[in-house]
Design goal:
single chain; seven-stranded mixed beta sheet; 15% strand; Aspartate Aminotransferase, domain 1; alpha/beta; globular; 2 domains; 12 helices; Aspartate Aminotransferase, domain 2
């Protein structure tokens, strides 16, 4: 929306200065107010919010700040299929990865209570991500509370990637936040990219446990990840406005319905979903996902092979709801089966 770049222009300083890793009070307050409106949680902007240069870098850097290989707390738990940055952050930090293959029949839920005790004992971070990338699976507060209980009992930092929380489809319940069940021992990661379409601005925030936020802020002072004040001003305006997010949500829902109906008409199985930015579909005819992605690309259609997201998804592909509604229709007309 035009008010966001306009806010950035108005905030351009005459003299450039290094940004603060703590972020501006204006952005921290806007983020805390958003969490209050959207999830009905009370967050202290001074101690429980940390602005970031998008969510990706913060997700990647968390393991560097938390994982301590020499202490025995060296493991990062995450689900597959899933966002690859959970794995790369663990490996760059010198930790151990523990991917858990998520099952369709269990709702693609990462269930910490089902992990062996010895894995829980050495886990430093466990990642949740619902609405789930790439499947679109959703969870409820009962599930989130159960995972928080397991994490608390085992001294695990429970991290929730909540970049898709504002992208639910028509008639669906708005996805909940981990912060609704607790702010102790947990961190929630949010981004302007999906909610507001601000991908190139690279702006997000982390919210949750005040002690964890303080520690992470201290680590990040060494990482050069402070956002420019003019970016943070634009982000503050975005978090303060819900109308543009609702308008984007309606467009995504329309694109989702057009593509789901169009793929189904071609005999392509699509996983039912209530929220998110993606469609998770099975490769038709038992073909390999990589080969099918190449066939699609030859027709000007970009899909992501399921294997990119980890084990257990080689016969699936992800389709992002990025093109316009008309471009979605054009893609369907050219779609290979």
């Amino acid at each position: 929306p035009s008010f966001i770049p306009e806010a950035l222009k108005q905030a351009l300083p005459a003299v450039s200065q290094y940004p603060s890793v703590a972020g501006t009070p204006v952005l921290r307050t806007a983020a805390a107010d958003y969490l209050g409106r959207r999830f009905r949680v009370r967050i202290d902007p001074a101690t429980q919010v940390l602005p970031t240069a998008g969510s990706k870098e913060a997700i990647f850097h968390l393991a560097l700040a938390v994982v301590e290989p020499a202490s025995g707390r060296d493991t990062v738990v995450y689900g597959t299929p899933g966002y690859p940055v959970y794995q790369s952050g663990a490996l760059f930090a010198g930790g151990r990865e523990h991917p858990v293959q998520l099952q369709r029949e269990r709702g693609y839920r990462l269930e910490l209570e089902r992990l062996p005790a010895e894995v829980l004992a050495r886990t430093a971070i466990a990642w949740l991500n619902y609405p789930h990338n790439p499947t679109g699976a959703c969870v409820d507060r009962v599930y989130l509370a159960a995972q928080a209980d397991v994490a608390r009992a085992n001294g695990i930092l429970l991290a929730s990637d909540e970049c898709y929380q504002d992208l639910w489809f028509d008639g669906a319940e708005p996805p909940p936040s981990l912060l609704e069940v607790t702010t102790t021992g947990v961190l929630a990661f949010h981004s302007c990219s999906k909610r507001s379409g601000m991908t190139g601005y690279r702006s997000g925030f982390v919210a949750g446990d005040a002690a964890l936020i303080g520690s992470f802020r201290g680590w990040r002072a060494h990482m050069g990840v402070g956002s420019p004040t003019f970016i943070e001003h634009a982000a503050a305006m975005a978090w303060s406005d819900d109308a543009h997010a609702a308008a984007r949500r309606a467009v995504f829902a329309q694109k989702f319905r057009v593509l789901v109906d169009g793929l189904a008409a071609k005999g392509i199985e699509v996983l039912p979903s209530r929220a998110g930015l993606y469609i998770w579909a099975r490769v038709p005819g038992g073909a390999a996902a990589d080969a099918y992605a190449q066939r699609c690309l030859e027709r000007g259609i970009v899909i992501s092979p399921g294997g990119f997201f980890g084990a257990g998804s080689d016969d699936w592909f992800r389709l992002a709801l990025v093109p316009s509604v008309e471009e979605c229709r054009t893609a369907l007309a050219a779609w290979p089966v």
